[in-house]
Amino acid sequence: MKSKEDTIAAISTAPGEAGIAIIRVSGPESLQIADRIFRGSGVAPSMRPAGTFVHGFVGARRNGSICDLDEVILLIYRAPHSYTKEDVVEFQGHGGRACAKRILRAVLDAGARSAEPGEFTKRAFLNGRIDLLQAEAVADLIMARSDRAAEAAMEQLEGRLSSSIADIYDSLINAAADLEASLDFPEEDLPSCLLEGAINEITQARKLLDELYSTWEEGHLIREGALVVISGKPNVGKSTLLNCLLGNNRAIVTEEPGTTRDSIEEEFILNGIPLRLVDTAGLRDARNIVEREGIQRAQALIKKADLNLFIYDSSEELDSSDISQLKNFDPEECIILLNKSDLGSRISPEDFTSFTSVTTSLIKGLGVDKLKEALIEKLDITTTGSPHAVISERHHHILQDVINKVDSILKVLSQSNEELLVPAISTLRSAIESLGIITGKNYDKSLLDNIFGRFCIGK
Ligand SMILES: Nc1nc2c(ncn2[C@@H]2O[C@H](COP(=O)(O)OP(=O)(O)O)[C@@H](O)[C@H]2O)c(=O)[nH]1
Ligand SMILES: [Mg+2]
Question: What pLDDT, on the 0 to 100 scale, is given for residue 225?
Fold first, then answer.
């Protein structure tokens, strides 16, 4: 399927006051549309060579005469050397609320159609310039909230993930060919190299699948951020911790227990990973209806968290409710803070041997660096190691399906049961087809609508 043969246009820059706004036009009529509305020195845009730019004005016909709408630079690209592989022109006009819209209106009046979200990138995909993984990387890059997220998106855009999938794809195709060839032999004449070759190829693919699958956790953290929930009894220093990490006074801190009623969420970037840091209402038996609602929300958040930070006031003795609250936490996904160490320590790390604990005096900023180190370790976000692309939710689902199929094939092959060979080959073919949905070798309209519908207009 090639992209539709009409010409589309959209404002590609963000709205609002800015130095420059870019209006992008792509399709067979792009240059003729530029001829109709652009007035500059020298020859008409459609007579100009690719890869050039020219200064001039965009005009519109009003009451029989031409009136200038904006002063622009016009960039000219010719198929196939453009973002979409089609003829493309870009008008760089003035930013702001009105100018870009005036140029877009002139372009649409001259024969273009308004682009749908992501339609330029969709054309780049349909015209074979990039695969679906690279198209998704464009959206990831635009939405990246941290250095690490942008880095991973660039790796994907440059084709690292595509080439890993291609390696798996090739191994499975080779294995399918071997297995299909083996069907031509009666059982007693079957050359052992065919079956062995297939098993080797599939085992190799299985290893690569595992490696890719294991990047899901990191991919999820990079794209959605890690939900880190701060909880504990009233007055132990939860809001002080939020403010300490953010470096400002986001949450109200008072000596009065029960100050924080609703949860407060803020973004905090740690080692390139966005954390969704949530301060919650203190956990206690509350009478007040608003506070009770706040506590219920806190409990729901604790269950959802990627990581919990549970704070004690270590200047006070542990009581039975302190101990029982610990049951809500998985030691793997929780860090205990022993706060207010400046007031003396009645609780010690030895009281929580299965948990990671950090001693702090948040009012003095002590122990915060240790806490950050513990967070990095618990969330497994050390930035050492070579840069690598990471899979997304969509890829995760498909890879899970492929892994299940590959495992079932390996099981059948290990049993050397001739009768099961034909169904195993068809399972292998179906695994290969699923892989093709990741890169876009196989796609349907709803898959493309789903992926490109999430893009912004103009990309
Ligand atoms: N001495 C001491 N006081 C602290 C410390 N951390 C917080 N506080 C104080 O404890 C009180 C309650 O803090 P807050 O952050 O509002 O607790 P929250 O109810 O858990 O959110 C405030 O008066 C803080 O200034 C600390 O490390 N040492
Ligand atoms: Mg508070």
Answer: 87
From 3.90.1860.10, 3.40.50.261, 3.40.50.300, 3.30.9.10, which CATH number describes the 223-378 domain? 3.40.50.300
Ligand 1 nearest atom to the CA of residue 361, by list position: 27
| Ligand 2 ion: Cβ-proximal residues, 5 Å cutoff | 238-239, 260
Q: Which protein residue's CA is at the shortest distance from atom 13 of ligand 1? A: 237
Q: Which amino acid is at 149?
A: A
Does pLDDT of 189 surpass 80? no
CATH code 1.10.10.60 for 137-215+390-440: no
Report domain 8-129's class.
alpha beta
pLDDT tens, 369-391? 999 999 999 987 655 566 678 89
Buried b (16+ CB within 10 A) or exposed e, 102-137: bbbebbbebbbbebebbbbbbbbbbbebbbbbbbbb
pLDDT level of residue 254 (50, 70, 90 thresholds): confident
- For residue 343, give the ligand 1 atom closest to its CA: 1
